[in-house]
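Structure, all two chains, one model.
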Amino acid sequence: MTAKPPLLSLQDISVRFGGVHALDRVCLSVDTGHIHGLIGPNGAGKTTLLNVISRIVTPSAGAMQYDNSDLLTVKPDRLSAVGISRTFQNLALVNDATVLDNVMIGLHAHRPGGLLDELVCVRRGRRREREARDIAAAALRPVGLSDLARVPVTRLSYGQRKMVELARASVGRPRLLLLDEPTAGLNSTEIAKLKDTLLQVRDAEGLTVLVITHHVEFLVGMADAVTVLDLGRTIAAGTPDTVRHDPRVIEAYIGTAA
Amino acid sequence: MNMPLVCVPHRGAAGGASPARQVLLAFALVLVLGSLTGDYPRYVLTLWMLYSLSAIGLNVVLGFGKIYSLGHGGFMLLGAYGTAVGLSRWGLPVPVALVASAVLATAVGVVVGLPALRLKHFSLAIVTFAFGITLFQLVKSTAYTGGPQGLFLEVAGLQALWQGRVLFYVAALLCLAGLALSYSVMVSRTGRALRMIAANETVARSFGIRVTFHKLAAFALAALLGALSGGLHALVTGVVAPETFGPDLSILIFAAVMIGGQGRLLGPLLGAAFVVAIPELTQDARALAQIIYAVLFLVIVTLSPSGLVGMIEAAWRRARGNPPPAGVHVGNATGEEGA
């Protein structure tokens, strides 16, 4: 709609695992401030696409720009610094740490301090820790986990742990947030809450979100655009409503849904 | 003083007293004990302190980073032989020999770690184990390092200083410094990064954590503390022999960390206490010491993954009638009504 170039844009991205085309010339463009849904049946290549964007998987062909620069030249451990952050399909939390400590990991790239620093300047190290703790605590508020900050993550429910991951991914104030199946394993109340939270965070901070989900209803009323993958190819793109009624999507994914 | 509790990244902290207070209390006790007892108990306490120092180093790598290093004895060997060679061959002053050998071992740690730390789990354990064996065979077959007999150090004077109290205090203070170091790793950005790396390297990288750098830093730190411990061992016993620093030492220190409680601040001290105490208590039958140690390792590691410290913390909570750490039932309750 706007003349602004997209925040993230992928052209003809292909990924091959052995002889299998995990992704076959996928194009995707995510506009600034949009919530962009990525759907498709199992094995469609959604997570692989997210792994490409987060530089875990290097594509065999194609180009990728983020914020008008080549994303393929960004090293994986610089991703956070350029403003891209993500959650993972399988929970990837530090189990023997508290909720707050887990969230603080999301600040790693955004806060100064090394071990020598901490040893030599104990007071400055403490002050920095206190500041980081406050920032992390603030990030727990939107996901409703403020009361559980000091609890070990192992004592949380699955849904709550997913919220810890969300807080950890958003605590560094990324520009682009990649969410891999945030709705999996959540009940309908939790899904509705997540939707509110995402909209709230998007509006408050101008965040851009790319979200993989199996719940199409989750995207209706929230996503500005949806891309549908099937067997590694883009089969449809548009608003949640047009995509929902696209015959190819119905055939490939929704099946017999009316 | 209470603030760091919030960010102590392990389960036990949720229930126990402040780690800093625990440590200071324990050390005051050790210092008093070591000052008042006779020469021989003090010698044993000194050994305990220096084995603790080594285990504290390994705990940073093994406990925080879950990096399975089975070559820690190699770094102790470097410290011990470095100190011995520095003293008896080059005539260096004691502190210079000690520090120089520790610096050397740290450098070796970086050089060995750079390729080795790309490996994980079993492969890493094997490679580090081979590192320890290589050094052991090297000093055993080299005349310059005394061959199978090893080297004797002319340190009777140093050992006798104030009836051994000087070496005891040095060992205790270094051990305390090691603890302070591992505490600041534990409650800092670096410690969190190490724990995240241990949980999942890919995820760690995505948050901007430099995986190789952090693993290498931890490994080098462990090498440093291990070498200081080895150097002190040479001074305290007055002799370095290859057999003292053979492959079984690496396993012993590894087991000490596991028995005491990996990733726990005071775990290495408890573990090292067994390393020192069991052979002392079973002096007539060395094999018995090994058997007791092996059984202990099996029992404790099977019953409590967080070692003796974890067991003690659990018992402590039960004794005080405290509920387990806050929020046992928070799981579903707040999950549903949170909105």
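Chain A has two domains: 1-83+174-258, 97-173.
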